Amino acid sequence: MRTTDARVAMEVTGVERPPGGWVALVGGGPGRADLITVRGLRLLRIADVVLVDRLAPRELLADTRPGAEIIDAGKAPHGHNLTQDEINAVIVDRGLRGLGVVRLKGGDPFVFGRGGEEALACAAAGLPCEIVPGVTSAVAVPALVGIPVTHRGITQDVAIVSGHVDPSHPGSTVDWDALATGPGTVVVLMGVAALAGISRELVKRGRRPDTPTAVIHAGGTADEVVLTGPLSDIAELAAEAGIGSPAVIVVGDVVRLRDQIAGAPSARRAPDIPDRRG
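The structure assignment produced for this chain is given below.
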């Protein structure tokens, strides 16, 4: 980018473009484009290259500058446009060419987002890499539908786990015994496919069968679906409703608060704030 272009970028975005190549791992938030951080949006607007994940808010790509290279990294549950090693290689390659690279992810880069692996690849290559935290879906998606993951008088602790490996699989490293008898709230990401096994294991290891449970599909988007029921029945209910990925699963008594919070006048969305660029 020429000096004049950098000055314009600074005036428009409030971000001074650093000399040479740089990388920013940007969390796009839980679904809605307007839930990205201010810093993340500013960096997105000056990037030369944007590698975007499947769950990142695609509407944000309209904010990229003309001529920016957009690379779809994909990463669906059972298929990838690019493998993680390929993503790392592209990030490093573009950065070493002297380009500004934004790796745009859904949620937060360091919460089951493999951001650590990408940051390590940059470090090994000697590339400057900024981590821009995002609003993780693990707490934001439940909040958007009226479920606080902690609540005074109900629970003071919450555990966030990955459910993409069935509890019965030898490769599962989650301590399901501890989850069944420990945290007041358990939030499971990437767990829809293994929901039957997860619910069965939690009950078998000590969690009450009637524990309130919510499955929130596509939270924060126009396709959002919320299903609630007892832990022992939730897998069957989700299958009957045809709920698939992406979804956030919440197990715990805090789910009971949804009817009161989501139905209250305070749950109505505030007016949209106009973009003040200009």
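Interim note for the steering committee: The longest helix spans residues 84-96. The radius of gyration is 20 Å.
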